[in-house]
Every structure is written in C-alpha cells, then in structure tokens.
Design a protein that fits this description.
The chain has a single domain, classed as 6-pyruvoyl tetrahydropterin synthase/QueD (Tetrahydropterin Synthase, Chain A), CATH 3.30.479. Helices cover 20% and strands 44% of the residues. It has two helices and twelve strands; from the N terminus they run E-E-E-E-E-H-E-E-E-E-E-H-E-E. The protein starts with 7 loop residues before the first strand and ends with a strand. It binds zinc ion.
C-alpha cells in the first residue's frame, strides 16, 4: 500500500432510505401549494481507513439514516423557523398561519416539527446531516473528514449539503 495518505469515501443510497411527505415552500411574498414528494436520501462519508479496514461500518450509516427517514415518513414537514409562517400547537392540532392570514390545520401526529426555515430539499439535507452527525458521535467513529447528505425530491433532482468535520 502507498505511504501517501489517501482519503476514502463510503456511499449509501439504498432503496429503503426514503420517506413520503407533504410540504410547501414559503417565504415572504410567495407560498407554494401544499404537495408531496417521495424523497430519497443518500449519504457520503469521507475519512481515513482504520486498522479494521474501513472508514466506518455501512450498517451504522444505514441504521441511523433509516431511523431519520422513518421519523419523516407520511408526515407534513413543518419548518418551525419560518419568517412568514406562524406555527402554533393547539391541543391535538398544529395550526400554520401564512403572512396573508391563510391557515392550515393538521393533526399534530401527522406532522413533524423541523428546526429549519424552509422545507426545501437543501434545508432537509442539512437537517438530516445534523441528525446523522449527532448520532455518529454516539458511535465514537474516528477519522471522519466530511459528511454529505443528498435529499432527492424526484428522480434526477436532488439537493446536497456537505460539511467538513
Ligand atoms: Zn415540493
């Protein structure tokens, strides 16, 4: 083996790393109609290869990502940091009021509250990345240099968020 340091990357994009969810993009002056996607999630993790021969166990990445997808599956994605949507929990319901006064009311159990500003593929990728990074810390994985998460809304249409560690 070469003595020159090499960077390795593992990539996971299984068929089951997906979630079906409803969302709409909203920012000041613009709101999409409520609609849904069958989202697909991919994960790339770069790092050095350890004495065990790998960057990290694929199984860990698959398990964590599958759990995150399950939390988002069959839910309405609520961007709680929005600057144009008021989000209020009222008993068993979540009420969203857009800046023009239009309201959505959803059963709270049908929603997932996300600490993001817009329910875009980009911000969803950043959210999944943060959750993945936090979960990987608990596994004491060493030698990682970069994580990239892709969230695809449709075939051939995905957003990626990458973070150097
Ligand atoms: Zn959409």
């Amino acid at each position: 083996m070469s003595a020159v340091p090499r960077d390795y990357r593992v990539y996971v994009a299984k068929d089951y790393l997906k979630f079906s969810a409803a969302h709409f993009i909203a920012y000041k002056g613009f709101r999409e109609p409520l609609h849904g996607h069958n989202y697909h999630v991919s994960v790339s993790i770069s790092g050095t290869v350890g004495t065990d021969g790998y960057v990290l166990d694929f199984g860990i990445v698959k398990d964590i990502t599958r759990r995150i997808c399950a939390e988002l599956d069959e839910r309405v994605l609520i961007p709680t940091q929005s600057d144009c949507l008021d989000v209020v929990e009222e008993g068993p319901s979540v009420v969203l009021t857009y800046e023009d006064g239009a309201r959505f009311v959803f059963p709270a159990v049908d929603t997932v509250m996300l600490p993001i500003m817009h329910a875009s593929a980009e911000e969803l990728a950043a959210y999944v990345l943060e959750r993945l990074q936090a979960a990987l810390r608990e596994h004491e994985v060493r030698g990682l240099t970069e994580i990239e998460v892709g969230v695809g809304e449709a075939p051939g249409q995905a957003a990626y968020c990458r973070q150097r560690l």
